[in-house]
Design brief:
The chain has 375 residues and is α/β, with parallel strands linked by helices. The protein has helices at residues 3-12, 16-23, 38-43, 60-64, 66-71, 75-85, 102-117, 137-158, 164-189, 197-206, 212-224, 248-253, 282-291, 302-315, 330-345, 364-374, and strands at 28-31, 47-50, 94-98, 125-129, 235-241, 258-264, 320-326, 349-356. The strands form two sheets. The chain has a four-stranded parallel beta sheet. Strands 6-5-7-8 form a four-stranded parallel beta sheet, sandwiched between helices. The longest helix is centred in the middle third of the chain and has 26 residues, at 164-189.
C-alpha cells in the first residue's frame, strides 16, 4: 500500500484510527469545525477527531426531530447530527461544540433540550466552546479565558494537568502537519499541478481522522516522491462555498479536463493556514492563532473574508472559479455575491451554484453549468 493509499483508507474509513486508539484504552474527543484548538486535546492525551457528515447516509432520525427542524435546515448538519443520534459516533467519549456557524452553535442548546426532555438519549459528554468572531485585542482577551476554561475541562476529563511541555509538543506536531499540508497546496498550485483536488481533499481530510504524528509520517514519505507524480493538464479551478467534507463536487469538476488548484472552505487549504508561534507561551500562542486564523463565514468584517478568497484564488493562479452553496446555508449565501464580484474583477470567471443539495443525486445541471464555464 502506498502512502497516499494509506491516507485515502483513513479518509474513507473515518472511524478506523479512533477505534484502533480506543482498543488501547485511549479516549476520543470529537469536535465540529476547524476552530477548535486540537493542540489542547492532543496535550491532554486524547485522540482529536473532527466530526463530518455522510451525504449518502440517512438523515431521517434527525429530520423527524422537531427541535432540529427548528434549529437548522442544512443537510450537512442534519447528517452529522443523525450520525450522533443513531450511534454512528458512539465511539466518541467527549464532544466539543464551538461557537461557529449558527447551525453548529445551535446543536449545543438542541442537545441540552433533548437530554432534559428524554435522558435516554445517548450523547457523548459534550461542552460548548464560546469564541468571538472578530480578530481584535478585546476578542483575544475573551478567547483567552474561554480557552483556559477549555483546558481545565480537558484536565477534568483526563484527570491530569496539561503542562506547558505537553502543549509545546502538541504545537510542534500540528505545526509540522500544517507545514506538510502547505507543501501539498504548493504541488496543486504549481505551474504544472501534480496533485488533483480530489487527492488533496483526501490528504487534508485524513489528517483530521488520524493521529497527527502518524499522518505526518505518511505525508512526509508521500512528499519525498512527489517529483515522480504525473503532471496534470487542463483548466485551473478555484472552489468556494459550503464545507466540502466529501469528494462529490471535486470528482464532477475533475471529470472535465480540469484541476481544483485551491479552495476557500474549511475542509481544504484553509485548515492548514497559520502556524502557531513557538516564541509565545503555549496558551497565548494558541489563542493568537485561533483568534487570527484564516477567516470563515462566522467572522467579521466581511471584507476580510472576500479578500482572503480572492487572494487564495490569485495565488493559485486559478483561471475559473466555482461557488457551490448548499440549500439553506445562510452563512455562505450572504457572502457569495461579494466574492463572485471580487473574483470577476480579477478576471476569474465564476459560476455561482446556490441552493444545492448535500447529496448530488442528479449532476446534469451542475455539469452543464461547469461545461459552460470551461467552454
Amino acid at each position: 500500500m502506498t502512502e497516499f493509499e494509506g491516507m485515502k483508507k483513513y479518509y474513507q474509513q473515518r472511524d478506523l484510527a479512533a477505534k484502533e486508539w480506543k482498543k488501547t484504552g485511549g479516549k476520543v474527543v470529537g469536535y465540529f469545525c476547524d476552530n477548535v484548538p486540537e493542540e489542547l486535546i492532543l496535550a491532554a492525551g486524547f485522540f482529536p477527531l473532527r466530526v463530518s457528515g455522510d451525504p449518502k447516509g440517512s438523515m431521517d432520525v434527525a429530520k423527524k426531530n422537531l427541535l432540529i427542524r427548528y434549529s437548522t435546515r442544512e443537510d450537512f448538519v442534519h447528517s452529522m447530527f443523525d450520525m450522533l443520534l443513531t450511534g454512528k459516533y458512539g465511539y466518541l467519549d467527549y464532544l466539543v461544540i464551538p461557537h461557529a456557524r449558527d447551525s453548529i452553535h445551535r446543536l449545543y442548546q438542541l442537545m441540552v433540550e433533548m437530554k432534559l426532555k428524554n435522558p435516554a438519549w445517548k450523547f457523548p459528554v459534550f461542552i460548548f466552546l464560546d469564541q468571538t468572531h472578530i480578530p481584535s485585542f478585546p476578542a483575544a482577551a475573551y478567547d483567552h479565558d474561554r480557552i483556559v476554561d477549555f483546558k481545565k475541562t480537558l484536565e477534568e476529563w483526563s484527570g491530569k494537568k496539561i503542562t506547558d511541555e505537553a502543549l509545546s509538543q502538541a504545537i510542534s506536531i500540528t505545526n509540522e502537519s500544517k507545514m506538510l499540508l502547505k507543501k501539498v497546496a504548493e504541488l496543486r498550485a504549481a505551474e504544472k499541478p501534480r496533485i488533483s483536488g480530489v487527492e488533496a481533499l483526501q490528504i487534508i481530510g485524513s489528517s483530521m481522522f488520524m493521529l497527527k504524528e502518524e499522518h505526518n509520517k505518511l505525508l512526509k514519505k508521500f512528499l519525498e516522491k512527489a517529483s515522480n507524480l504525473p503532471v496534470r493538464e487542463g483548466a485551473r479551478i478555484f472552489v468556494d462555498g459550503s464545507p466540502q467534507d466529501n469528494l462529490q463536487l471535486y470528482e464532477i469538476i475533475e471529470s472535465f479536463k480540469a484541476t481544483v488548484v485551491a479552495e476557500d472552505h474549511c475542509w481544504g487549504n484553509r485548515s492548514s493556514d497559520g502556524q502557531i508561534d513557538t516564541v509565545l507561551p503555549p496558551i497565548e500562542a494558541i489563542v493568537d492563532r485561533y483568534n487570527r486564523k484564516s477567516p470563515c463565514p462566522r467572522m467579521y468584517p466581511i471584507q476580510r473574508l472576500v479578500d482572503y478568497c480572492v487572494k487564495s484564488a490569485v495565488n493559485a493562479k486559478a483561471q475559473k472559479a466555482i461557488c457551490y452553496v448548499y440549500e439553506n446555508d445562510g452563512a455562505e449565501t450572504w457572502l457569495t455575491r461579494e466574492k463572485v464580484k471580487a473574483l470577476e474583477e480579477k478576471g476569474i470567471s465564476t459560476v455561482n451554484f446556490q441552493n444545492q443539495p448535500y447529496l448530488i443525486s442528479n449532476s446534469e445541471q451542475l455539469k452543464t453549468g461547469i461545461g459552460k464555464l470551461l467552454a
